[in-house]
Structures are given as C-alpha cells and as structure tokens.
Amino acid sequence: MRLVAEDLTVARADRIFFRGVAFGVEEGEALLVTGPNGVGKSTLLRMIAGLLPVPDGRIALEGMDDRSLVEASHYLGHRNAMKQDMSVRENLTFWRQFMHDDRFGDGAPLFEATESLGLGGLEHLPFGYLSAGQQRRMAMARLLMVHRPVWILDEPTAALDAASSEMFAGLVGNHMAAGGIVVAATHQPLGLDAVHSLALDPKDRAVEFAADPFAQDGIA
Ligand SMILES: Nc1ncnc2c1ncn2[C@@H]1O[C@H](COP(=O)(O)OP(=O)(O)OP(=O)(O)O)[C@@H](O)[C@H]1O
C-alpha cells in the first residue's frame, strides 16, 4: 500500500494555491504537512480525503485494488463532527454504523476505545458537556472503533495538553507500526518516527484564479 500524489494542483473553489505538489507515503509512514495559517494545509488534506475535487494531477492509494483512497481513509478535520446534544455513546455508535465496512474487519468496542483515550465512564454524557480537550479525544475514538488504513488528521492535537498529545502520539505510532499510513497537518511536532514532511511555503504559492474570482458557484 502506498499513498501517492503526482503533479497535484492544490485549489479551493476558484483559487489555485500550489501546482506540481508530489509525495509518496509507504505503509508504516507519516507525512506531516506544515506551513503558516491560510497557506492551504486543510485544503490539501480535504482533497486527499475526497472532500474537495482534484483539479489537476493525481492522488491515489496504490496496492489496494478493491478499495479507493476515500473508502480506506479516516478524516479527522478541525471540527469534531459530533452532535453536541447527543450522548458520547450515541455519537460514536452513529460513526461506527456509518463507517462500518466488512472488508476492513471490526475495530475496538466502544468502551475499549474510550478507555484507550483515558475517557472511560463518560459515554453517557452529552458530547457538549465535555471540555474542548475531552471532545477532541472522544472524536479520536472513532479512529479506533472503525479500521481504516489511512488516517488524515487536521491539527489533531491543537486542543490537547502535553499528556494527551503524548497519548495520541502513542495511538498514531501503534497505527503506523501495524502498517497504517498517516497524513497530518500540524503546527506542533507529533513525536513520531518514520515521518516525511511537506512544507507548504507561501513563497511558492501560485495564487491564481482559475476562473472569475467573484463567481459564487463551486465555493466549497
Ligand atoms: N470554503 C472556502 N471557500 C473558499 N476559500 C476558502 C474556504 N475555506 C478556506 N478558504 C481559503 O483557502 C485558503 C487556505 O485555507 P486552509 O484552511 O487550507 O489553510 P491552512 O493552511 O489549513 O490554515 P490554518 O493553519 O489556519 O488551518 C485560505 O486563504 C482560506 O481563506
């Protein structure tokens, strides 16, 4: 299994940020995407996750003929994608049912996943009752509850204290040791081995408009 990008154009709506982006990430490796605010890290991650179109070039997961990159990926964005008024258990159960795929086998049971994140016993609470760091960690439980070989993580540790960041680095390290691939946008080192880095530099930004910059169609 290998995640590859070739001659990729990174663009959002009608704005082209970078051309010719390329990388390759093997099993057991991570790619850290770095760069200042607004440079295009989240845009690139959303393209890899299939949430934004690829205007030019190619992103693919090679060596998994029966599964597309989107099917093989977990995407943890800036936001946690959990309903504030629903309990933690209801939120996580929804995600397991929504993402379950027999081809990948079963993940950890709900209570084991929350325990692994140091949050066992809080499953009955409305998600909105948890602190910002607890919410972030609970959102990570779905990475454990549903197997996906590729984890796409947007600033995963932004709300976490040092101990929680270290715990998360351990989970990511386990995923990589089991042959998983990680792509993470981050402003902080994640403490991982086998890491490639892709620094998006504003100096290299293309900043082109692909079409009428005032057109509203296609705003993602
Ligand atoms: N929905 C959208 N439609 C059009 N442009 C957007 C949209 N969301 C973000 N942008 C623009 O795309 C550019 C890149 O944003 P992006 O979120 O990818 O940056 P980033 O590197 O992840 O930043 P940060 O470090 O602040 O998270 C920014 O100029 C931003 O204003």
Largest sheet report = 5 strands, parallel
Termini separation comes to 30 Å
Question: What is the CATH class?
Answer: Alpha Beta
Binned, the helix content reads 25-40%
Indicate the overall shape: globular
Average pLDDT rating? 89
Please name the CATH architecture: 3-Layer(aba) Sandwich
Helix/strand-derived category reads alpha/beta
Radius of gyration: 18 Å
Whole-number total of structural domains? 1
Assembly classification: single chain
Bound molecules: adenosine-5'-triphosphate
Q: For this structure, what is the CATH homologous superfamily? A: P-loop containing nucleotide triphosphate hydrolases
Report low-confidence residues grouped into runs of 5 or more.
Answer: 211-220
Strands in their spatial order, largest beta sheet = 5-6-7-3-8
Provide the succession of SSEs.
Answer: EEEHEEHHHEHEEE
The number of E-state strands comes to 9
- CATH topology value: Rossmann fold
Task: Indicate the proportion of strand residues.
Answer: 15-25%
Count of helical segments? 5
Short summary of the structure?
By secondary structure, this protein is of the alpha/beta class. The chain has helices spanning 41-48, 88-99, 110-116, 132-145, 162-177, and strands spanning 2-12, 15-26, 30-34, 58-62, 73-76, 150-154, 181-185, 195-199, 208-209.
